[in-house]
């Protein structure tokens, strides 16, 4: 996803002379092509995220659309007040980009687990929040942001994510990724969409159930109507690589009509701090294919 | 109106505004009134009729709790009618107690300390990258030099040779709960800033001629940002407020307002 991000940003920067990339001394082997192509619109702010975000707001106040780029919690939690006051309150066009959302940096430890960012960023007035699932969605998100410069947050996975579907537009509502005929549907945000699709595949193979799967890269601003395609199901199972508090499941729980029953699969607070691969941690923290299948079946 | 008269007007308005709104931070407004007056009368290139004039100098009040003083300076220099100042801190007013970008002439809302200098660095960098000649002035409190974000920006500006950036420290030596020397000592401040590769000068922050002489010659060293350490007195101009921590908080009553205005020689 980070490769899709930087490739699209470079492509857009050729046509949009106000795009500016600021990194927090991270992005080795990712950001260099941008820096080489647009040295006047690139800045490594050093390991100083508060200043990085304040500088980004200052650049944005003078007409640039600034992307700040760092990993996991560094461009969000570390400088949250700068995001809140300098960017969102002033509604400056700064896009905060976090790479390695969720447990992507699994064995680097808890400091690098981005599992509370949705909660804090959802709480920011005037912020647009995008959480793509695969390289195609990432490209769409960058295109939308470039054409609608605004205070925004782009939550990315890391590298190597497979392309999961063909995307055309992300701003109109949840994206139907896999069809089916069932009273239960799966809805995912971020790279755990791959788990939802794998679970749906298994349910079809093993039980003949054709469970529809939706991807939800657009998380804010939203209304109940925005998610209307989800409300025609009797039951929804949601997935996110984030704690339950303030996450995607809570968002849908607040918006859903009473006719929809909702089961949210989010990461377990009790198991935070474990170290291991992303796959291991997803399993232990309760968001993997087996948990999805169990959630679908137990509600059946 | 010369800068001394403007400083006196800023003090008068500020005392009345803070009293009327039952607000606070009067001491820190009075301490920076002279620097503010010199800036707005003689240094900043501005166009009050067009607050967003592209070639204006940018002034950022990082010590946002002194918003009342900046509003007074803006009103007295024609950015909006002085009658608007009576709305300070009132329900629904744009003139919130911590400085607000909703007010004509205000570049940036602050209030939480440590935000102004990074933002100013961003503006100064934008000017450099675009070949613009306008300058960025950032007014800091001494207390906000406790903030790590301020020191991140102090590292950043010289590294990027932002000689179009001028930081001014309103060094009144009193912060929120006590003397700077007792809470978190800054001395030797000028040496620290020089070690960070800033061009540094120190002035009596109530001596208009000295302030003017320093600020008309920036940048003092090509390729370096400038920092003016303005040694000031908290509550300056009103004897019973001077050097008193209490006036970081207290709102003057009617008798105190009268007494204060008499001392400023602008009694109604």
The number of distinct structural domains of chain A comes to: 2
Shape of chain B: globular
Order of helices and strands of chain A: HEHEHEHEHEHEEEHEEEHEHH
CATH class annotation of the largest domain in chain A = Alpha Beta
Task: Annotate the secondary structure layout.
The complex is a heterodimer of chains A (300) and B (268).
Chain A (H helix, E strand, L loop, with lengths): L1 H14 L3 E5 L8 H6 L4 E3 L4 H13 L3 E7 L8 H10 L4 E6 L17 H6 L5 E3 L4 H13 L4 E4 L19 E4 L5 E5 L4 H15 L5 E3 L2 E3 L14 E9 L4 H8 L5 E7 L10 H7 L4 H11 L1
Parallel strand pairs in A: 1-2, 1-3, 3-4, 4-6, 5-6, 8-9, 8-11, 11-12
Antiparallel strand pairs in A: 5-10, 7-9
Helix pairs in contact in A: 1-6, 3-4, 7-10
Chain B lengths: L2 H18 L5 H18 L14 E4 L5 H10 L39 H15 L5 E6 L6 H12 L5 E7 L2 E2 L2 E2 H4 L5 H7 L3 E6 L3 H8 L10 E6 L22 H10 L5
Parallel strand pairs in B: 1-2, 2-3, 3-7, 6-7
Antiparallel strand pairs in B: 4-5
Structure description:
- The complex is a heterodimer of chains A (300) and B (268).
- With 300 residues, chain A is of the alpha/beta class.
- Chain A has two domains: 2-155, 3-Layer(aba) Sandwich (Rossmann fold); 175-299, Rossmann fold, CATH 3.40.50.920.
- Chain A is 34% helix and 20% strand.
- Chain A has a seven-stranded mixed beta sheet, with helices on both faces. In chain A, strands 7-9-8-11-12 form a five-stranded mixed beta sheet, with helices on both faces.
- The radius of gyration of chain A is 19 Å and the shape is globular.
- The two termini of chain A are 34 Å apart.
- The relative contact order of chain A is 0.12.
- By secondary structure, chain B is of the alpha/beta class.
- Chain B has one domain (3-263): Thiamin diphosphate (ThDP)-binding fold, Pyr/PP domains (Rossmann fold, 3-Layer(aba) Sandwich).
- Helices cover 38% and strands 12% of the residues of chain B.
- Chain B is built from nine helices and seven strands.
- Chain B has helices at 3-20, 26-43, 67-76, 116-130, 148-159, 180-183, 189-195, 208-215, 254-263; strands at 58-61, 136-141, 165-171, 174-175, 178-179, 199-204, 226-231.
- Chain B has a five-stranded parallel beta sheet, sandwiched between helices.
- In chain B, helix 1 runs antiparallel to helix 9 (254-263), helix 2 packs across helix 8 (208-215) and helix 4 runs parallel beside helix 5 (148-159).
- The two termini of chain B are 19 Å apart.
- The mean pLDDT of chain B is 96.
